[in-house]
Amino acid sequence: MKIKVGVAMLVVTIFAILIDGYSCKVVQFIFGDSLSDVGNNKYLGKSLAQASLPWYGIDFGNGLPNGRFSNGRTVADIIGDKMGLPRPPAYLDPSLTEDMILENGVNYASGGGGILNETGALFIQRLSLYKQIELFEGTQTLIRSKIGKVAADKFFQGARYVVALGSNDFINNYLMPVYSDSWNYNDQSFIDYLMETLKAQLQLLHTLGARQLMVFGLGPMGCIPLQRVLSTSGDCVDRANNLALSFNKAGSKLMDNLNAKLPNSSYRFGDAYDVVNNIIINPSKYGFSNSDSPCCSFGKIRPALTCVPASVLCKDRSKYLFWDEYHPSDSANQFIANELIKKFGFTRVDQGDAPSSAPAIAPSPDQN
């Protein structure tokens, strides 16, 4: 009888150690759009928002397309690396397992997605923030079934969360007359609509365990190459930039209110508008030579919208702020990430020195 009791106690002790090991690993859960997508849209067969063609990914790992809408890393990649966090794999990656989730977290970001469900409808398939949160709920069910509710709750409450959407709600919704939101709202009422929706979404994430969360603000989206080339002057579009500033101001206020309201929450707003705007105004000061046109372009045909194999690349990708008509280059993302790290005083979590098993950025800026 004593032997049976001893064996039972040993089994319980081992099980507790295993659960504690799972719950102590700090991982990231990322919700976002194409600025954070690491491959989800690759598995949305009908989606028109794709980064599956060369030259996307040319400066990352083996240089092949990997689902990131850039030549290299995302801002979330770089911040996570600096903090010693693993890079979370795409949720829709068919190789994703419960063990991978426990080791690395998950990235739900989807190119074309927005805070609003209606945003990005022209892309046919994309994951809105509500859909991404729904998928996160499914992830929680999987993890609870594997390690139990108590350990799962500890695991999810100890994780880091990133929410980075909003630009599509303007560029691929409100600012396009084909969407009903463009005539149902004015600038202020649309910002209010976005904030009401985002508030409900962040409160939902809190009920699901999100305690340490950062919402990324918008950059000067009126200065992306697409907006410039569609304007009559080639200059930045002031209205779009003013909307980004209004979004950031409202978003920062929302984070303050939620921090005061939600128990045990540490919700931050990452505003990099001035960081990017400073590069646009004076690129050479920050080591860039071009801040108004894409590195990857289809000759004189603009806007080409996406980078394609027939596109021509700039001679030095590290000197361009923008990779394509929409998205920053790896060098720009690194600069933005470093500024946010300094601004918020991010420190490494206690997980060793290696950022992750994901491939590092390829060193050569030369076109193959």
Summed up:
With 368 residues, this protein is an alpha/beta fold. The protein has helices at 2-24, 75-82, 98-104, 129-147, 149-157, 167-174, 181-184, 187-207, 225-230, 238-261, 273-281, 330-344, and strands spanning 28-32, 105-107, 160-164, 212-216, 266-270, 290-294, 296-297, 312-313, 320-322. The protein is built from 12 helices and 9 strands.
Q: Terminal Cα separation, in Å?
A: 71 Å
Mean pLDDT: 90
Order of helices and strands, N to C? HEHHEHHEHHHEHHEHEEEEH
Give me the Rg, rounded: 21 Å
Counting DSSP H or I runs of 4 or more residues, the number of helices is 12
Largest sheet: 5 strands, parallel
Q: Order of strands in the sheet with the most strands?
A: 2-1-3-4-5
Which fold name corresponds to the CATH topology of the domain at 26-273? Rossmann fold
Strand content: 5-15%
By helix and strand content, what is the structural category? alpha/beta
Q: Which CATH C-level class of the domain at 26-273 is it?
A: Alpha Beta
The counted number of beta strands is 9
Q: Indicate the low-confidence ranges by residue numbers.
A: 1-21, 351-368
Assigned CATH architecture of the domain at 26-273: 3-Layer(aba) Sandwich
Query: Which overall shape is indicated by the principal axes computed on the Cα atoms?
Result: globular
Into which percent range does the helicity of residues fall?
Answer: 40-55%
